[in-house]
Amino acid sequence: IQGDMVHPYLRRRNGEEKVEYPSDELRRVLEKTLGVPLFQEQAMKIAIVGAGFTPAEADSLRRAMAIFRRTGTIHTFREKFIEGMAARGYDRSFAERCFRQIEGFGEYGFPESHAASFALLVYVSAWMKCRYPAAFACALLNSQPMGFYAPAQIVRDAREHGIEVRPVDANLSDWDCTLEPGGEVAGAGQGFALRLGLRQIKGVSPGDGARLVAERGNGYRDPAALWRRAGLGVPVLEKLARADAFRSMGLARREALWAIRALGDKPLPLFEAAGEAEQGEEPEVTLPEMAIGEEVVEDYSSLRLTLRRHPLDLLRPELPNTVQAASLLETANGARISVAGLVLARQRPGTAKGVIFATLEDETGTANIIVWPKTFERFRRIVLSARLMRVTGKLQREGIVTHLIADRLEDLSHLLDTLSEAPRHSVSASNPPAPRHPRDQAKVLFPSRDFH
C-alpha cells in the first residue's frame, strides 16, 4: 500500500484500470502481475533491465530492501536507479514511481515464493472451512491461544454457518472440543455438531480435565460423584458449576453451586469407598432462576463466550438510533450512521501512519472501524480502553468491503456491568437481582485483542 502497488493491481485485476507496460522488456518482467511490481524478484529485474544494474548491484538493492527500516541504506540507490531508467528512455516520473514502490518493499516486501507459500496455506484453510466447517472450527478452538480471533468469534462464526455448537458438560465433554453425530443444518456440518471442551473453562487445568474424563465411566450422577471418583476439589467443582457444566445431571448453575457448597475439600476415607447410592439424599431446595443477563455474564466470566443471547441483543433497547452490523451492506455508501458493539480487536500497524483499525461485534455480526489520527487524539482514552463502544461516522464501501470512518466515539462499557443487575430479562418479575460481583466488570469479562 505504501508503495502504491496494491490498489492499482486490484483495479487492473477487476478490469477497472487499463493494463499498460512502458516497454517490451518490462512487460516480460511484470506481465504476471498486470504491470505492477509486487515481488522482490521483480524489483531486482527492473533494476537490471530498466536501470542498467549489474546482477551484483541488484542483489545489493535486494539486501537494502530487506533492512531498509533498520539502516535506511536504500536511498543510496535512488540516483543510479532513476538516472539509469531515464538514460534508457523511460519517463522520469515513471522511474520515480518505480523507485517509490521499491522503497515500499522495505516495509512489507517479500519474494514470490513467500507469497505462493502463504497463498497455499490460505487456500487450504478456506477449502477446509468451506467443506468441513465443524471440524475446522473445532481445530481452531483446540489450537488456542492463537491468531486474531478469540474463541467467542470462532463459535459465533460457526453458528452463523449452520453448525450446532453444544455447551461444555461434565458428562459429555472431553478436554478438547470434539465433534458429535447430529446437529446438521442444511448439510453445513457434514452431519456433526461441535461440543465445547473442558479446556474452555477458566481455571480448569488439563490434569483436572484428565481425571474427570478418566473416572467418568458411564457418567456422573451429581457433583458429589465427581468429588469422590475423580478426586476434584471444591474449587474445581465450583468452576465447572459456574461454567454451567452440570446440565446433564439436571442441575442449573445455582443448583450445582448449592450442591457443591455441601461438600468438603476432600472425600473422607469412609465416603471415598462408599457407593453413590449409600450417601443418602440431600434435602431439596428451590432456588430462583437466574435472569438471562446473569446467565450471559456468568458464561463470559467462566467461558469467555456464550451460547445464549448476545450482550448487545440484551442491551439493544438502550442503544436507539444505532445501525446493526448486518444492515451495513444495505446502508447507502456515504451515509452518516452510528454503530455499537463489543470491541473485539484494535490494531495500530506501524506502517499505517497512526491510523487505528477496530472491529466491533453486535448480535448480528461485525463492523470495521477506521480512526484517523486527528480523531484518535480527540478520543484517545475511549479508543484504547472501551470494551463497549458506540461509533458515529461516515460509511465507506468498496465492493463488499465496508468501513465506518469514525468522527465521534462513546464509551458505553458501563452498560455491560448492568447485565447482571436488573431483572429486566428475568424469567419472573419477582426474581430479585443478584448483587454484582467485582469480577463482573466489563474490563475483565469482555477483553479485546489489541495489536499495536
Protein traits:
single chain; 452 residues; alpha/beta; 5-stranded mixed β-barrel; 3-stranded mixed beta sheet; 21 helices; 9 strands; 41% helix; 13% strand; elongated
Explain how this protein is built.
There is one protein chain. This protein is an alpha/beta fold and 452 residues long. 41% of the residues lie in helices and 13% in strands. The chain is built from 21 helices and 9 strands. The protein has helices at 6-13, 24-30, 40-51, 55-66, 68-71, 78-87, 92-108, 112-131, 133-142, 151-160, 206-214, 223-230, 234-242, 253-261, 269-273, 292-303, 311-315, 373-378, 380-385, 413-416, 442-445, and strands spanning 165-166, 178-181, 192-195, 336-347, 356-362, 365-371, 388-398, 401-411, 449-451. The strands form 2 sheets. The chain has a 5-stranded mixed barrel. It has a 3-stranded mixed sheet with strand order 1-3-2. Helix 8 (112-131) packs across helix 9, helix 9 (133-142) runs antiparallel to helix 10 and helix 13 (234-242) packs antiparallel against helix 14 (253-261). The chain is elongated, with a radius of gyration of 29 Å. Mean pLDDT is 84; it is low at 422-443.
